[in-house]
Amino acid sequence: MSTPSFPPASPVLSRREFLRTSAVLAGAVSLVRAAPAAEPITDIHQHKSYSGRPDDKLLQHQAAMGATTTVILAGGGNPKSVSALNAEVLEFVRAHPKRVYFFANARTDRPDARAEVEKYLKLGAIGIGEQKTNVPCDSRYVEILAELARDHGVPMLMHFQHEAFNTGFERFHKILEKFPTVNFIGHAQAWWGNIDKNHDQKVNYPTGKVTPGGITDRLLADYPNMWADLSAGSGNNAFVRDEEQGRGFIERHQDKLLFGTDCSDAIGQGAGCIGARQIAVIRRLAPSKAVERKVLHGNARKLLGIG
Ligand SMILES: [Zn+2]
Ligand SMILES: [Zn+2]
Prior knowledge:
Bound molecules: zinc ion
Low-confidence stretches: 1-15, 21-32
Order of helices and strands: HEHEHEHEHEHEHHEHHEHH
Radius of gyration: 23 Å
Shape: globular
CATH superfamily: Metal-dependent hydrolases
Strand content: 5-15%
């Protein structure tokens, strides 16, 4: 083995050279400062005080994960009533302008649901949801808030879960047809299970190969006002159970998919963070950098005008 040859040691710099080098270095530093920040990521599905997580930990979680813009949905893993949460969420959002936004929410089977949601839409909410009430997904209850979404020009995020929330998912196309100007965002177990044409409705976290052409696949293909929220274990499962179909799904619906996390951990990294895992899945399965950017940020920007 021959001895590696090293470049000759630098001679001691003259004062003139030193000044020139310093100027170059200073320029390099200012270039670094002027460089664009890390690629923006918008998380469209987070919760305040989720499983008791303090607000500073929520913000740290989002930063560690790389989310530059966050949408807080009232409800989700919080024992307080949804209505009591709207006021708390508004206060939090106002303390973090241009970084944190919110959707207004209420249990849609409550008589004051419409008034409650409208109040917070007027106070700056940019959507309605997540809607998570045990009512049929095509019932009058859902229509009342869909009318509000239509009148205020905001999207509505739906948690679909078999025999639990927004039931009868196979009839949701009726709402899409009745409210063609309202953008609906699908989320949760029944939404993601139904990417598979052979989905067993009783199974919340199906495994194994997916046969494309399920209800979810068709709604996204056929209705311009149907969007998908990739958050939670259900969203992650939809891709990791069959990565090959996951690739095709992202390619087919690349203009409709919105990154979200719905995660309650305080870390924002590693195996315990579903959001961090989902970012890795999107980066791995997206057919191009441009598609990855749409899913992680661009589609949310287009739909919600934020980030
Ligand atoms: Zn949910
Ligand atoms: Zn997380």
